[in-house]
């Protein structure tokens, strides 16, 4: 009887040429594909015109079972947006400044070999995707996905004002300089919002962040209850009150969320402490925000210009991401 040969599985790599060491990446990916008995990978570069969505679409049409996103948060977000609902898995080789998704999923951030190994030998995990419809001042509508966080107000101004050259030099610490540059623009955002079709409410906040995940670079845990696969978006509004308002916010996200929550005793201390009203939380699967005047907006650490309204919702388990296989005891 003739021997039936099954087609080898195929991987595609969508890479940002400004971020990766292409020769090193190609060598590592080719070796891993050969060791796993996969077909020769296909390669797609991002461009100024295509952040990765079109390249990922080409990879899907070429029959890729996994698309490796090699670059910063913008590349990862673009690849995920194009993979939404496709059933094709995404693997991440994080070589950016924030590497937000990798940090929230505990993926390796400093070892290309380990990241590539997960692409070929990892475990498929389904995650939610955050979706937003942005309305511009000229009434143009745009729809985008996000993996970690979307933000309106001060955090978006910080990202806009952060030096690209400084990010290359010192990594995520460059955002500290971005905050300093944003201080002259410091003012509350006046907005109306509703959650899950509820009544419209007014809010004056310096920042409103919508999260699919909760961790920021530097060990900061902004939204401790956020999970990327629970079908819910978490929302945090920074509302500093009085002279100690920003200090209260810092203590909340750096000390209480980032340190105390990691231990039983710490969580008891939180339960006994007075709630910090300078950080306000809400959860839901659908959020509408309308601002009194257009405000800076960001998605996963990339600036997205001015928005006069934002509709955000969750697309449950719409993305498959390769993660390390669970350790067996």
UniProtKB/TrEMBL annotation:
Alphabetical UniProt keywords: ATP-binding, Kinase, Lipid biosynthesis, Lipid metabolism, Nucleotide-binding, Phospholipid biosynthesis, Phospholipid metabolism, Transferase
Domain of life: Bacteria
A Pfam family hit: YegS_C
Molecular function (Gene Ontology), one example: kinase activity
Cofactor(s) it depends on: Mg(2+)
Record PROSITE patterns: DAGK
SUPFAM superfamilies the record matches: NAD kinase/diacylglycerol kinase-like (SSF111331)
Gene3D superfamilies recorded: 2.60.200.40, Probable inorganic polyphosphate/atp-NAD kinase, domain 1
Domain DAGKc: 6-138
Annotated family: Belongs to the diacylglycerol/lipid kinase family.
Entry protein name: Diacylglycerol kinase family protein
Naturally occurring in which organism (per UniProt): Rhodoglobus aureus
Taxonomy of the source species: Bacteria, Bacillati, Actinomycetota, Actinomycetes, Micrococcales
